[in-house]
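Homework help board

Subject: predicted structure for assignment chain

Our instructor gave us this sequence and asked us to write out the predicted structure in token form, then describe one feature. I got the tokens but I'm not sure how to describe them. Can anyone check?
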Amino acid sequence: MDQSKFNNPQGAATPLAVPKRSFSLEFFVGLFTAAGVAAAAYLAVGLADLELSSKDTYLVYAEFDNISGLKYGASVEIAGVPIGVVSDISLKDPDARVTLKLNRSIKLKDDDIASIRTKGIIGDRYVKISRGASTDYIPEGGTMTETESVIDIEDVIGKVVHSLGGDKDEDAKDEETKK
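My token output:
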């Protein structure tokens, strides 16, 4: 194609006509795209369980001897009702420090007991709060003093096996001394 015809000021050839742009079509395509991106962002935040503000929650700390199997995001419950989540786990030697993110509508008393329990036989671990009778509350950022560590089934089985094995050794010694 000869470009000189289009650049010729005497205009031997007519310039190409540009099609008329439709504002309404472009506007609706853009609006539809924006709505799709907004819906995808909403679903991503909802599926990830992200909180965009923390006005509804406050932090309380609890220190345990053993938190075996407790994970970030585990639920915190009173009477089986979820009231928060485990938001952080750290080591405060020699104890494990668990950060509980609780609903602001629930206030913990200073004699409430935090214990780590298992959902079902082999289920996930969660923090169970047993209510006390005090009228004093734990302040935001405070630490729970009453805690019960996880009961590790492996330790219990090991102690039972050890105690059964120990009885056999003592019986054998008793029989040898009798001979």
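Reply (TA_rk): Your tokens look well-formed. For the description, you could write something like this. The beta strands are 57-64, 75-78, 81-92, 95-103, 113-118, 125-130, 143-144, 147-148. That's the kind of observation they're looking for.
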